[in-house]
Amino acid sequence: MDLLGGLAQGFAVALGPSALLHCMIGVVIGTAIGVLPGLGPTATISLLLPITYRLDPVSSVIMLSGIYYGAMYGSSITAILVRIPGEAASIVTCIDGYEMARRGRAGPALGMSAFGSFIAGIVATIGIALFGPMLSGVAIRFGPAEYTALVALGLILVTHVSGGSVTRSLVMVGLGLLASTVGLDPIVGSERFTMGALFLQDGLDIAIMAMGLFGVAEVLAMAERSLKPSELLAQPRRTRDLLPTRADWRASAAPIGRGSLLGFALGLLPGGGALIASFASYVMEKRLSRTPERFGTGAIEGVAGPESANNAAAQASFVPLLSLGIPSNVVMGVLMGALMIHGITPGPMLLQSQPALFWGVIVSMFVGNLMLIVLNVPLLPLFVALLRIPQRILSPLILVFCVVGAYSLNNSTTDIVTMGVFGVLGWLMRKARLDPAPFLLAFVLGGLFERSFRQSLLIGGGSPMIFLQKPISAALLAAAALLLVLPLVRWGVRRLRPAPTGKAS
Amino acid sequence: MTDARARPAPGDVAALLVILALVAAAGQRSLAYGLWSYGEPGPGLFPLLVSAVAAFFAVLALIATFAGAGPAEAEFDPESAQQEGPMLWGKIALYAGVVLAWPWLMVPLGFVVSTAIALFVVLRLAERMAWAPTAAVLVAAVGLSWLVFDRLLGVPLPHGLLGIG
Amino acid sequence: MRRLALGLAGLLLLALAPPVQAFPDKPIRVIVPWGAGGTSDLSMRKIGEIAGRGLGQPVVIENKPGASGVVGMAEMARAAPDGHTLALATGATVFIAPNLRTVPFDPLKDLTPIMNYSGSYHGVVVPAAAPWTTLDELLADARAKPGTLTFGTAGTYDGAHFAMLVISRLKDLKFVHVPFQGSATATTAVLGRHVSFGVLSGFAEQVRAGQFRLLALLDGDRMPEFPEVPTLREAGVDWEYPSIMGIVGPAGLAPAARERLEKAFTEAAATEEFRSYMATIQMPMRVMDGKAFDGMLRRESARYKQAAVEYGIRQ
């Protein structure tokens, strides 16, 4: 099947009335689910699986994938408005998105997040259409050694996310990595730091910790002292004033482009692709910016880049599923189950045996992203109006949602206890001026890092040479080394050649 | 804020010391897990290394704090710009207490009753809201969350010993 | 007034009368100790839906994942043995976990087996480009180059890893075990030839597409789809990983309730609706009645316990 023929078939399928309707239902449910903390797309898709029995396979996958990327967008809504990341991939959005909202610019932040996701969606759709079948090999090329190198690179990037001192964020990176070792050892299977508690055997949950460290801690911080009446968040009311301005667009255009490409590339890899993409994009924009000091205080580039990246990654993660039968994350695993219910096994033969499904789903993502814009831009005033709820009502409501959200993950009150503990810890961290963002990001990467590092050593017979023998991992490690050395070199150059102002920093 | 830069903030020092104690304990446990066996890294190696990293940078941060190079207060406490007056320790304690006690109440009392109690404490005692709005917010919040999660989304919220909800 | 009095008297009578033994008198809760959406969860939801019709009460599925299913299984074991709380048991929870660590339930004392309906196949797969065409060739190669062949599994101490430990012991071989997270990532690693071979479940599609060659099954029986592939026993290794997927209740389950449940679930498993559903999600049918299930649990638990002690696997 040639490309144009495939795309034409895809449009024919995705624009059919049933596909359109289910795409719409999917993105609406997805957005709603993304807004509710805890209850993520995995649980929702699982709950809705029985409903899809009666649908044809194409419509059901279109609907379920709509839930997935709709939730990605929805989770950035809460990240921006109340600093609760609905999904791990929107942790980064909490930084500048929430700061924008606090400065009365919730509208442009939400708008740019939607437009950025849309543009990233188009880029990813084109990418999949052009290279999809070819790119399927990428996932296979990534073995333990390659992952180790990729995560090493990611960990170096993490230290640049925080706005504060590098030393302090490295303390948090260390603690985050330490937290990731709680539970069963990934290779030997022995217990570590579980203190005999059964629920700690599976390790700490990222969603629970994120809700505690960001959402609950924010509520506590709000309760600290009385609000200045004069500085109550002034958000404009008219939709026109809520949309990103021309200056916003100018600032965001390049980050969206770069974020989309980065997200697409990393999304092809099973595992932490979407998350690494989001903060890699953040760090990249901060590095490239002429005014990096604005990051952390409400820079729109810090929303546009990561949001585009995580959306592009979410779409790219369909490639390994549809072309290899490899689910790259839990949501894809559930989607695979949905396909199998209909007697379709995703795998290498899917593109030949079910071209309508493959192309229909790809094109429906493009359609669904358009729907997200059409639905959400008129809703901007409503979302922003949430910020006009008085703090003393909003705070308890956020708590209720966090508690139910934490409970719904595993139907367990233990998770609420954990969230509460991390909430208090998060507040203490803020008081001690320690940033929870590097902690969480390092936590997510830590598990993957240790596992792939030790797997590589097993495969390499205990010799670390395996990392240099494999070309991809060698290249990634070289990039990581460069990132590590570059600041030192720059510092050295500055030392040797006195700056014109004569100020040594 | 300028004086905060000049001398180390006691909270800062305390936090870093707590972290040092924590990673020291973790490092000690890691040794017991085994560092190296049969030519392969053991379960304790990675936790020991990351504890060392955290400890190393915590010491550096301590030195920086005493050298007067700690970060500015506003950098990590964006709320402070919009808040005024003294710290409301009682209010924070109530909020924190509610979050921590909530799940323990939820098992015997069920979701509806425990949430109503939690909201009552927060709204009435922490936020000093009048009776009527307290009741209105309470009923709306409990009712809506129960409807959405239990009925609509099928989350099996705990019913408690009373079987309410 | 008289009507009211009569009504009240009737209510009183109802309240005083001993409860009629009409099991089940409320919805039956089945704890699936794994996350929603997996094949075990899907199959349980379907058989529960069908059995609920026969029982006259809905069967409600509750996902309680954690610690290889131990969290959910322990909660079920603590519930009242009236038949209204059951759990889905799989090999990882009842054979493997209790023989590795201390778990808060005893698979032999704290469970009442009701019936078994499925269990996925595990197999030894090699990449199509690999030189081995039979298990014997693979094992011979491993003997020639001890400690160089690597194999991927879905995780440390799953049934597949356990089986390989036993094989290495029985045949005096040395393999390098590389545990992955779930069978999907292990499949990827075998496809990308990052490991020499894999011992996994869920390989059918790759075998059909010609990317994998299936050398042997860990199960006690051959797979209908690949009838020429032998089981471990047939290939000369005296070990099997009996994949189970069955319904269990707490210890001391009321006999009447147990029989009623066994009948309802066995009938549900026999329906065409369930069979065709299982075929589409590619799960085999392995129906065992309560007695056979119980016998198998006891036999295999004992064997696993012995192997765990003998080979120094228990921690």
Please provide a written account of the structure.
The complex is a heterotrimer of chains A (505), B (165) and C (315). By secondary structure, chain A is mostly helical. Chain A is built from 22 helices and three strands. Chain A has helices spanning 3-14, 17-35, 41-48, 57-82, 91-102, 106-141, 144-158, 166-180, 206-223, 239-242, 246-267, 273-288, 301-316, 318-324, 330-341, 350-353, 355-385, 391-410, 413-431, 436-459, 466-469, 471-496, and strands at residues 183-184, 191-192, 226-227. Chain A is globular. Chain A starts with a helix and ends in a 9-residue tail after the last helix. Chain B is mainly α and 165 residues long. Helices cover 70% and strands 4% of the residues of chain B. In chain B, strands 1-2 form a two-stranded antiparallel sheet. The longest helix of chain B has 38 residues, at 89-126. Chain B is flat and about 60 Å long. Chain B starts with a helix and ends in a 13-residue tail after the last helix. In chain B, 35% of the residues are buried. Chain C has two domains: 25-119 and 243-310, 3-Layer(aba) Sandwich (D-Maltodextrin-Binding Protein, domain 2), CATH 3.40.190.150; 122-217, Periplasmic binding protein-like II (D-Maltodextrin-Binding Protein, domain 2). Chain C contains eleven helices and ten strands. Chain C has helices at residues 2-16, 39-55, 70-78, 91-96, 135-144, 159-171, 182-191, 204-208, 255-270, 272-280, 290-310; strands at residues 28-32, 59-63, 85-90, 111-118, 122-127, 150-153, 176-179, 197-201, 212-217, 245-250. In chain C, the strands form two sheets. Chain C has a five-stranded mixed beta sheet with strand order 2-1-3-10-4, with helices on both faces. A five-stranded mixed beta sheet of chain C has the order 7-6-8-5-9. In chain C, α2 packs across α9. Chain C is globular and about 65 Å long. Chains in contact: A-B, A-C. At the A-C interface, α3, α6, α15 and α20 of A face α2, α3, β7, α7 and α8 of C. β3 (226-227) of chain A pairs antiparallel with β3 (83-84) of chain B.
